[in-house]
Amino acid sequence: MRDHVVAVDIGTSSARAGVFDTHGRLLAKAEHPILMNRPRENHAEHDSEDIWSAVCIAVRAALGQSGIEAAAIGAIGFDATCSLVVRDTEGRQISVSTSGERRFDTVVWLDHRALKEADFCTATKHEVLEHSGGVMSPEMEMPKLMWLKKELPATWANTGYLFDLADFLTWKATGSLARSRCTLTAKWNYLAHKERGWQGDFLKQIGLEDLLLRGRLPEDSVAVGESVGKLTPDAAEALGLTSNCHVSAGMIDAYAGALGTLSGYAGDPEKLEQQLALIAGTSSCVVAFSPERKPSQGMWGPYYEAVFPQSWLVEAGQSAAGALLDHIVRMHATGGEPTAALHQKIVGRIAELRAEAGDALGARIFVLPDFHGNRSPLADPHAVGVVSGLTLDTSFDGLCALYWRTAIGIALGIRHILEKMRDHGYMPDTLHVAGGHVKNPILMELYSDVTGCKVIVPDMNEAVLLGTAIAASVACGSHKDLAAAGREMYPGGSERLPNRSKQALYDRDYRRFLAMYRHRAELEAVE
């Protein structure tokens, strides 16, 4: 009986696999690292065959640990970062790197090489920009494709396949050229609410009129929870599964996390609208749903049916969150390589310092967290970070004070996003937090106290894998739809209410946060 599924999550640095039963229980998981090449500033590249190899290793390891037979797996699902995979006309690897190495055929999601191309897209003021907050991000696929065509013409001339990373994995698994509605709508400016999703006039304006033919991109898309086919014999052999195993449509990793955290509300659109998913790790993504289309200036979306049927999704976020704390640790004189153990040591010392100094710890340090641009709500990829209040202190306690105030800056950035969402008619009152930040007690405290929202942490902190497993369970028929799967597989969670005694303190910090934005703009405007 095929009453189990496998979920695969491709992050920035690793492939993870989990084996679930159809009640949402995680029986086993495994992880394998993936390579990233950083040949120059703002350039980041993966090797897609290295990713596929890591997937196969992780799936086989998780399956072995679970004790579940391959014949019991009804479906496998893939979620991934919005990285761009390029293959030649024969389906082989082709370089997207200025180094010319063929194995680096994938532009990583965080790559910002296409800033000029993104600005060009924004300047068109085309209708598609109404679904990306009015601004094109260099993290979207169109600017990256424009850069590729202009800067690596030989690669473009020999390109025969273009994929979002999740769609590449379903292609490797099934041979199907089907593309996910989730990936196309969110990252390729595909308007799923229109009869024709691709907007030919926009592609012509940005010089990509040959995109659909060049990339073998279909006119239609496959909804989350649908099957794109079954595993090929070769893929089944590589993964340690059977060729009777379905493959569900791929998902963007953050949206898989939103499905995993909010699936329990899928059958109640009114209640769903009050919930926000905060998928917080290297970067942070805030995801909200609405039964009707709403404005989204400074946010990504609204995207129609990117996850739930007949529902609009909007995403906001921070391009560097956990990555910013890593950076602070790495750059400080008493820091070093930002290992989990070092973060834990810093967090522990902060607790001691707060017990001694209270709210005075680092009270004159203020941080704007835009060290990798401002994804939301300013939608400014050119934005830079600001730190005010530094002294000559190079002690470990000095690092702890800076870390604490940086964490406050990150939480204030989330508050800034929520305020703008409310301006556009969203009604968030509950944050469902998942990802690596759940392990950081400082951030979990601040997300609640700084925003004033109730925070819910799922009882199983594997929301991204769970969301992918939920979609896979629908693809193989174990559950009839996403709402039914959510009711059965959502694990529940524990909640934390904001400490109202801290409200005045963080209200003042927020006023200072907004003042810093004004002051940064004033400095940059000086001639």
Structure description:
The protein has 527 residues and is of the alpha+beta class. Helices cover 39% and strands 19% of the residues. It has 18 helices and 20 strands. It has helices at 48-66, 115-124, 141-151, 153-157, 165-174, 181-187, 200-205, 211-215, 233-239, 253-262, 269-272, 322-331, 340-357, 396-423, 441-451, 463-475, 482-489, 503-525; strands spanning 4-10, 14-21, 26-33, 45-46, 73-80, 84-88, 106-107, 159-164, 227-230, 246-248, 251-252, 275-280, 284-290, 300-304, 312-318, 366-368, 386-388, 430-434, 454-458, 493-496. Strands 1, 2, 3, 5, 9, 10 and 11 form a seven-stranded mixed beta sheet that branches. The chain has a seven-stranded mixed beta sheet with strand order 14-15-13-12-18-19-20, sandwiched between helices. α10 packs across α16 (463-475), α14 runs parallel beside α15 and α16 packs across α17 (482-489). The longest helix is centred in the last third of the chain and has 28 residues, at 396-423. The chain is globular and about 65 Å long. The mean pLDDT is 96.
**Radius of gyration, CA atoms, in whole angstroms:** 22 Å
**Number of DSSP helical runs:** 18
Q: How is the biggest beta sheet arranged?
A: 7 strands, mixed
Q: Structural class of the secondary structure composition?
A: alpha+beta
Helix content: 25-40%
Shape: globular
- Poorly predicted tracts of residues: none
Q: What gap, in angstroms, lies between the N and C termini?
A: 72 Å
Amount of beta strand: 15-25%
- The overall average pLDDT, rounded, is 96
Count all strands and give the number.
20
